Amino acid sequence: ADVCQLLEGGNARRAVACTKLNATSSRSHAILTFHVTNEPDKDQVFEAQWTFVDLAGSERVKESGVTGTALKEACNINSSLNALVNVVRALR
């Protein structure tokens, strides 16, 4: 498949919501991994992998004015980012 089509499809599935702070606040994380293989001849194979990560930003709940489902999403976003911080700290 065409890379641009895949990116557009993934971007279309991303969740966003309007808050007082941001009209298109991301409500999801995204991970994109490229696997590239080049075989210039039968005896050589070159492989590479690139991983790009776009994390939803932390949400200041009081300032953003979110309620209902958006409030639950904000709490989940903040919780997942906190878990990621703990993982990174543990890897040090």
Largest sheet: number of strands, sense, barrel closure: 2 strands, antiparallel
Rg, Å, rounded: 18 Å
Share of β-strand residues: 25-35%
What's the helical proportion of residues?
A: 40-55%
Low-confidence stretches: none
N-to-C CA distance? 38 Å
Using the alpha-carbon principal axes, give the shape: elongated
H-E order: HEEEEHH
Total helices: the number is 3
User: Strands across the major sheet, in which order?
Assistant: 1-2
Number of strands: 4
- Structural class estimated from helices and strands: alpha+beta
Chain-averaged pLDDT: 88
Q: Can you tell me about this structure?
A:
This protein is of the alpha+beta class and 92 residues long. It has helices at residues 3-13, 61-64, 68-91, and strands spanning 16-17, 25-26, 30-41, 44-54. It has three helices and four strands, in the order αββββαα. The strands form two sheets. The protein has a two-stranded antiparallel sheet. The chain has a two-stranded antiparallel ribbon with strand order 3-4. The chain starts with a helix and ends with a helix.
Task: Describe, in short, the structure shown.
This protein is 42% helix and 29% strand. It is α+β, with helices and mostly antiparallel strands and 92 residues long.
Relevant terms:
alpha+beta; two-stranded antiparallel ribbon; about 90 residues; two-stranded antiparallel sheet; 3 helices
What is the topological layout?
Layout: H1 3-13, E1 16-17, E2 25-26, E3 30-41, E4 44-54, H2 61-64, H3 68-91
Antiparallel strand pairs: 1-2, 3-4
